[in-house]
Known about the structure:
A: 550 residues, FAD/NAD(P)-binding domain, 39% helix, B: 277 residues
Amino acid sequence: MPRIPKRCFSKAAICRQSGQTSSPLDAETHDVVIVGAGAAGLALASALTRPSSSARSCRIALVEASDLSKVREWSLPSDQYSNRVSSVTNRSLSFLKTCDLHSHLNQTRTNSIQEMEVWDGVSDARISFRASELLGREHSTNMSTMMENLNLQRSLLKTLQSNSSIILLDKTKVDSIAKPNDDANSWPLITLDNGRVLRARLLVGADGFNSPVRRFAGIDCYGWSYDTQAVVATLFHPSRSTGNTTAFQRFLPTGPIAFLPLSPTISSLVWSTKPHIASSLRSVHPDVLSLMINAAFRLPQISLQYLYDYISEKGRDGLQVERNELADEIRWREAAHSIQPYSALSSTSDKQGDISEGFDLLPPLVEHIQAGSVASFPLRFNHAETYLGEGLGSRTVLVGDAAHSLHPLAGQGLNLALGDVEELASCIDDAISHGIDFGSRTALLPYVRNRYFENHKVMSAVDKLHKLYSSQLPPVVWARSVGLEVVNELDSLKTALMLSAGADSRTTPNPWNAAADGVTLVNNGIEFLKTGASVISGTVGSAVRNVLKV
Amino acid sequence: MSFLRNRNLQCLHLASKRYLTTQPSYDGHIPLNWFENAFLAVGSAVMSLADPRRGDMVAALGETTAGPALPKLREKMLASAEGRQVLKARPRVNSKTVDMVALSKLPAGTFGQSYFNWLERCGVTPDTREPVRYIDDPELAYIMQRYRECHDFYHCICSLPVNVESELALKYFEFANFGLPVAAISAIFGPLRLDSAKRSRLFREYVPWALKTGGNAEPLINVFWERRWEQNVEELKKELRIEDPPPARWGKPLSEAAREKRRRELLQQASTSSETP
């Protein structure tokens, strides 16, 4: 790939000329310096220090700008949850288990997801995933595990602290990164804001979307920001007889809204929507927001659009949206669409329990929202051109959000980051056991080779899904709905989708199952056409009879 | 048909256009599939052209060809405070819901009185409107019904009598204002039934007025006519940005409606007596 290496030494905040850096003699030498102690950075440090790793005797430093004691001491009562949660796939979880995650993870705050309901907000075409039906009895019946990001980070941090070979430098910012005397072959020097200088055999950028390490390494990014904000909140709702193990996602033309179960009566919301709608959703009272959430899973698009306009108009006029008034508006819209009060699609009647037909196809009705849990953040697509620095940026590698960020609609951000970490750790392991310098380009190339396309595949699939479902054009809606329903009938394809999304790391789909499904589909198709032909001939017949009668 | 059938949708009874629904969703609803709809559209078009007095066929033509125009009207109504009140109250217009005696007692110059006079003068009643049958969404069906029942209000506010040229002028007006294809179909094929003098007057005078006024006026579907009986009709026209059309065949201002009516009756008597020996 022809690429003009764009040096970023113009960016004064990051890079200083070599003359200004401290003499290499004062520097502490480390094998690995990880910048950023988010989930990716913590997981990499844990992976490198686990007993099975050949890197466990390396000197590893983890630099983090914020105060890690906040993560360490993070604790919430059992009826409250943090609003930032992630779905950790079985594959990611089995990797995390090798890093001794479970000795400190608070398992009562995690919840397994066994079913998934995804549907089209315009046409109502639907796809259902049920792990127990698709993966069979011999496998675990969950697709992924929901957990709070802080729960995961805290347990990784506690594991790390029991390990003395890690140097944790929190409340410390990276002041500058440079190569002594502009020598591409030397090790990078990381100057911290407290004056310490670290020399790294390998510098890992796990420092998030605005990665200073990426800028130092001169790696360009490719991407854009979506005209979309994600609103998150922690939701309280009544428990269901069927338990709370189903994740729900409805694709609205403004973006998908997702309901992620955390406990029998608590779930998390991720509602991607247009920025102006997001800001009015954030500004209303939480009781009003819970009505809007219930409606957003149920009402047709035209009425939702009306409700968005309703709350934003009130906000513009400086008026409070009253819960009762909004409930009246929703009741009116339900009546306009002939939604009966006893229907599962009605969100305003005070029906008790799971009495409506099809209730399990929609999330439980939100009753209220945890105080202070409503927040929003912008969404973007971003992929670094490579994960390895070259020339003056050599001995640098990127993982997690520093390398890529994507739309949260498939819940893959953390899982891609953990995939990177697993691959990078095994690359370093291999290099050490073969006696190669693991900071060298040759040692790290397999990491890029194995991850870049893998990540890009998921990222572009998610991006295309977002764009496909933003459309309300009838032919597009028709095509995507037929496609979704055909996939919904093909169990082996659904299994393959689930497996490739990380539901299980051990099995691969059997192609003969797919073939058998294909034959059934063709048969059904012929049957369908036959029925269709008889319906048409019947219609023509009756229409002709009608005309003759006239 | 099991191949495209979705268990989930059947459970929820979601009214979705892509699925053939056989249950009526409101009183008098006749669900049609796409083929029946297309067949009825063509059939009713032929019948309406052959005999424009077949109100049922014109109505069926309007419903089967509505397409995306009705959802657009609904968007307009939801965006307007008055339109939302119409959708919430769903008022109907007929001699039972409209108190004609009260209208006749309103002061001269009010919209209510003008409407009463117009009905009297043209000898029509609001009870002859066909009910909507073939539109699946109950709210869209109501909007169609409202458009149809308010037709006489459009006549009244535009000061147009009931004759072929005026009806056609009003169809152009309605097409520009509502965007419903049925108005365009009538507006295109209707003039075939006029003689050339009337047709040339229609296109020279009425059509430019109709397109201009219809396009510039407020969307009339949003107007809650029943709450404006007491408003001055000139004020109402100004508010809705409706300009007077070129003088129609009766050619007199509205305040002289009663006299005009008497004169027309006399004329008619004279002409009929001269025709019959």
